[in-house]
Predict the 3D structure of the following.
Amino acid sequence: MTELEPVVYVVDDDASVRTSLTRLLRSAGLRAEPFGSAAEFLDREAMLGSARESACIILDVRMPGLDGLQLQARLADDDESLPIVFLTGHGDIPMAVETMRQGAVDFLTKPVDDERLLKAVRLGLERDRASRARREQIAGLRKRLETLTARELQVLRCVIAGALNKQIAACLGIAEKTVKIHRARVMEKMRATSVAELVHLSGLAGVSPIATAKRACPPPAAARRE
Amino acid sequence: MSILTIAWSMCGAASFMLSLLHLLLWSKDREARVYLLSAVMTFGAGASALAELALMSSESIDAYRAWIRWENLFVFLILVPMVWFVRIRLPGARRGLALLITAMWSVAIVANWWSPSSIVYSEINALKQMPTLWGEQFTIALGTPNPWVHLANLATVLIVFYVVDAAIRTWRNGDARKAILVGGGVAVFIVLGGVHAPLVDSGVLEMPYMVSFAFLAIVLALSYELVSEAVLASHYARAIQVAETRWRTLLTNVELAVIGIDPQGKVSYANPFLQRLTGYSSDELLGRPITTLLPEADHAEARHRLELAARCTPRAHSRWDLICARGERRSLAWSSVRLSHDDGRYAGLLSIGEDVTPRLRAERDLERTRRELERVGRANVLGELVSALAHELNQPLAAILSNAQAAQRFIAAGEPDLAELRAILNDIVEDDKRAGQVIHRLRLMLRKDQPERERLSVAETLAEVIGLVQPELDSQGVSAQVELDPNLPPILADRVEVHQVLMNLLVNSVRALAEAPAGPRQIWISGVRTADQARISVEDTGPGVPEEALPRLFEPFFTTRPGGLGIGLALCRRIVEAHGGTIWAENTENGARLTFTLPQAPRGDGHD
């Protein structure tokens, strides 16, 4: 996947504000794309889908039609939501708190100092880049997980629950040696160099360890009897 | 003792008594000339009685001649005053006739003295002794008649005509009693005396002259009239006294200031309330120029008013402040009447004043409260608009800052694109102007001074207001349409107040639309010309006004909106009515319509 030049979407109903912000971003070496309303922006979003560059939004609150807050709520439904920097002419504290709680990068009031705005925008872009990277990593891990056999997945879940090879073997009713082989396969397929890393990657990929493993393993008394 | 002597003397004495009595009455009341006339008249009757007695007992032609001259003079003294007496007592009497009779009799009296043997005879030939019925002797003259006597006789006939005519006219005017008593009495006895005397003169009747008796009867009739009037007068006097007491009680106890001002502008009367109010005693007030009670600033005006009052009816109601003894000021609302003498001469003013100081104070407080409330109302509307205005102001400011900082960055980066910088500077200038306009409008709105009427264009004023509420309209998705009559005249109104009215109505409509179910959100603003006013309507497609709320919509503190103060529309009504217009609300098919009228600016006032 080629890394595209990051873009800042400017959503404001006031044309002169829009123009000036676009210029300011351009002067700071950022690509900016202006939108006169939330609806206009949503149309563009739908067209781009997920195949897009890293981006963030500078969003006005009070606008005709869909306002800034409503747009934020709309975007939050999406997993891949863009970071939002609010820029408003008449913000109040409850509004600021609410937007931040909903995950906004910053809540700024007009007129805004360039440093402050650019800092927020860069933070937003950074956040978007990071979340994109994480999403990609998770997607990669999921692919690796898919290469595991059912038995290997069982072993993995036991390993990350902290179980010893002996315990695993007892639990799954297979030889300890077989467990060792499965375990090496898992480490290889997951490209993990240590158990600690394996635990970390499994956490990222959303593999749940303990609950299923406990139920799968019989109590120690039963093992002794065998 | 001679019966003739007794009878004529008694007649004479009675007449003299009456004469004295009337003279006395006249001396008490010089204005009543009718008493003087009747005094002369009765004196004439008395003197005539004595002259007749002298004639009857004359023993020589010379004596007879002398006495008959006097007798004629006394008859003159009876008749001429009687004519004028009648003129005073009977309003119907003709002045011309009275003058004619007076002139004729005056000529006759001159002739009486110029003729050799009085006006009756040109020559007395002999005296003749005649017996009365009871055998007493008396003298009459035998002579040739003087032609001048016809003048006197004609005058006497005229008197009868004059009196009867006056009586009839007076009767027609509704005063029958006076007409009969004065007119009838005078006429009957003049006929008796006036017919009898010439008959004796001409020797047809051989009897003593009895003119004085006839006139005594007339005088008695007239005196009866006068006396009954005097009795009435005393009745009136008593009634007046009762009324006077009543008035005095009223003036003393009433809680109103009563002041009399004489033609010189000095206090001639001050009732106890006025004394209590001012703290001056009656003695201190009486004779004092009224201006000394008034504030310095009112002196010129007061003097002017007093001068005017001498010539014409004063203004019925006026307000003057009084300076009290301790220096404080009281405001009184005065009602004044001009007093005049019987002949219409100015006699001063009588003024009744109500102390309105507490009421004025209350009104001032009320006015202040109302202004305050109005300001609160205005602030309320403002408060709701301030966020919109702040937004509007923030936009250009934000754009300016970002543009300027972008330019700084372009320059800092070196080799800036000049076209880019030019565009930036143009935008900055435009946005700065935009911000300036917002500030200007805001200042117009916040101005808190006395109402100032000026010539306003409805279209411009409307545009200013719509400019102010545009953000509000936009944010609510409301479209506003303006339809103005091209002939709509300029209005005469206070700019800020008209702004407030329009803004209130627009904001109300926007709020009504916010409650409306989905559908077109529209406001129509229309302006049409009526006879002498401009009529402006704001109509919306909102839910309308509940029917039961319509009549109370403009009352202060009445609101149909939860959280509303109920000040906006009350303020609108106050403003519109202060301009001489009206405001009303009605429901239409689609929503509500609020309409108000404002006066047209007079033609040629200012430049157009």
Remarks:
- Residues 211-216, 218-226 of chain A have pLDDT under 50 and may be disordered.
- Chain A touches chain B at residues 13-14, 16-17, 19-21, 23-24, 26-28, 62-65, 87, 89-90, 109-114, 117 (CB under 8 Å).
- The first strand of chain A starts at residue 7 and ends at 11.
- Residues 114-147 of chain A form the longest helix (34 residues).
